[in-house]
Amino acid sequence: MNASQRRxxxxxxxxxxxxxxxxxxxCNLDNWDPVLTDGLAASREVILVDYAGVGSSSxxxxxxxxxTARQIIALTEALGLEQIDLLGFSLGGFxxxxxxxxxxxxxxxxxxxxxxxxxxPGMHAWRADIESHARATVNDADDLLYIFFAHPETSxxxxxxxxxxxxxxxxxxxxxxxxxxxxAQYDAIVEWGIPDHAALQRLTGIRMPTLILQGDDDxxxxxxxSHLMAGLIxxxxxxxxxxxAHASLFQYxxxxxxxxxxxxx
Length: 265
Hints:
The chain is of the alpha/beta class. The protein has a single domain (7-264), classed as 3-Layer(aba) Sandwich (Rossmann fold), CATH 3.40.50. The chain has helices at residues 34-41, 65-78, 91-102, 128-134, 141-148, 153-166, 179-193, 197-201, 223-232, 248-251, 253-264; strands at 7-9, 19-22, 46-49, 84-89, 107-113, 210-215, 236-241. It has a seven-stranded mixed β-sheet with strand order 1-3-2-4-5-6-7, sandwiched between helices. Helix 1 (34-41) runs parallel beside helix 11 (253-264). The longest helix is centred in the last third of the chain and has 15 residues, at 179-193. The protein is globular and about 40 Å long. The protein starts with 6 loop residues before the first strand and ends with a helix. The model is unreliable at 1-7 and 10-16 (pLDDT under 50). InterPro entries: AB_hydrolase_1 (IPR000073), AB_hydrolase_fold (IPR029058), AB_hydrolase_sf (IPR050266). One of its GO terms (molecular function) is hydrolase activity. Keywords: Hydrolase. Residues 28-251 form the AB hydrolase-1 domain.
């Protein structure tokens, strides 16, 4: 490893396999929904990770999905983890797919949430209104609600509950992400989304059982991309949550934890 990456073990399950979680863009450890992580940790050890250059991790942020995947693999080797279950959300789902392809023996089961495949149609950057909120110098509550949750009030209300949960703790919080992180991760996202039919075919090489979670109207990564992944990954199943967008697993954290635990069990 060329950087010190921060990881936090939420809880240790007595018999279940370890689950490592790979975060979204501009995410630090405090951006995970505690209802989701506590629900997962009730059944298994859960390891949350800060990317290099994010939060308390040293090093420079990566502008490449492939490089980030290598960093996460190096972290698992440093921790002596021979086989894990892996959950990737958003950008973390890109990284998780790459790990599954270049180090398949590492992963027992795979969970992909709010994400999409490399080279798929509609994946090259974001639409203008989403980009203006996502690339703000500081993402405030209004930005997060706009880009992560569906716009009907039912979804927005659950989004505000999520924000209340992640900001409830005020002490010993991870450092906010920087504009360098914003720009490097945006470069990685744009590169991943360049239309490429051959890159899509790589998904057929993901052979471990895979659960895909998505909202029915994702404004950042089109929901149809999740259906495409489900069709190309040989042993995949998909769960689409209603009246939700990019952060469906934070809009329905208890349900998502239940679905993930049942799949991993």
